[in-house]
Amino acid sequence: MIILNRPQTDPYFNLAAEEYLVKNTKKPLFMLWQNTQTVVIGKHQNALKEVNLNYLREKNIPVIRRISGGGTVFHDLGNLNYSFIDFGARESLVNFKKYSQPILEVLQNMGIDAQLVGKSDLKINELKFSGNASHVHKNTVLHHGTLLFTSQLNDLESSIKGKVEDYSDKAVQSNRSTVTNIQSHLKTPMSLQDFKQQIFEHILLTNPNAEKRDFTKEEINEIQKLADTKYKTWEWNFGYSPRYQYNVDIADEKSSLSFMIDVKNGKIEDVIFESKSASVFLELRSIFVGSNHKPDSIAEIYDSNAEWFNTLKIKKSNLIKAFF
């Protein structure tokens, strides 16, 4: 086994590293790593449905889609991520119990009754501190999970409050749980770095032939290229969402409009309304169809049609708010 040192905290680089490594590594790997504040969504989730976009834009917190399935998680520097990359027969690669067990053993050795609950949640006293997910590539599996240690739980809660009721889709939806920080359950306080070291020591104890190494310069260059061309793009993080419909309700001082947008690959394909003869809705269809469902695009639409929106007494800020 290789223990890979990962000091990088850039979330785009770190998510790209997972994909690069699962496709290119030749030996089993174990890694611990951290991100600055980020919301990470599962591969098959509707990004807009899962997050509080207005809060994230205000706090400048990015949303990044990972290659594994499962639900939405929040990363910050009080959270420690762990990853295993392993090989085997394809039908037996996904094994949540196997890869979470070393983490549970570390915590149990500290006197914490941590357990795997359900398929993928690690909990202490029914409070979740870790979400786990897997991705299979050929005969290789990536298993990774979060470890909330001293995370800002208020930011976590605020970041993932999506407007679920306004969406209709077949996307994977997160199961919300009450969360906790590991440090709150320690009998003797320790730093995140000390906790990290305890995990490393346990992995070394159970894998005595493990070797430590850093990323090579070539790996860093390839991972950064992947981060720039995929993980930083709106097309991957939002446009990849499964097809969905969203209820738009525009309420202004003198106007009220309600309709539905049909979105595929992040692009508005149709505007659906009950009164098909109403000229205002036909105009809305001509204006919005073909545009991306993102704030910048809606703002540009308003600016290009400001006179028409003004006749309806619709303000720019209210239009954008109604679409998200």
Brief sketch in words of this structure:
This protein has 324 residues and is an alpha+beta fold. Helices cover 35% and strands 27% of the residues. The protein folds into two domains: 2-239, Bira Bifunctional Protein, Domain 2 (BirA Bifunctional Protein, domain 2, 2-Layer Sandwich), CATH 3.30.930.10; 244-322, CO dehydrogenase flavoprotein, C-terminal domain (Enolase-like, domain 1, 2-Layer Sandwich), CATH 3.30.390.50.
- The CATH superfamily of the largest domain turns out to be Bira Bifunctional Protein, Domain 2
Q: Mean pLDDT score, rounded?
A: 94
Strand residue percentage: 25-35%
Total domains: 2
Tally of DSSP β-strands: 15
Number of helices: 12
Q: Helix and strand succession?
A: EHEEHHEEEHEEEEHEHEHHEEEHHHH
Kindly describe this structure:
By secondary structure, the protein is of the alpha+beta class. The chain has 2 domains: 2-239, BirA Bifunctional Protein, domain 2 (2-Layer Sandwich); 244-322, CO dehydrogenase flavoprotein, C-terminal domain (Enolase-like, domain 1, 2-Layer Sandwich), CATH 3.30.390.50. Helix content is 35%, strand content 27%. The protein is built from 12 helices and 15 strands. An 8-stranded mixed β-sheet has the order 7-8-9-10-6-2-1-12, with helices on both faces. A 4-stranded antiparallel β-sheet has the order 11-13-14-15, with helices on one face. A hairpin with a 2-residue loop joins β8 (121-124) and β9 (127-137). α1 crosses α7 (217-231), α4 (96-109) crosses α6 (192-206) and α10 runs antiparallel to α12 (316-322). It is elongated. It starts with a strand and ends with a helix.
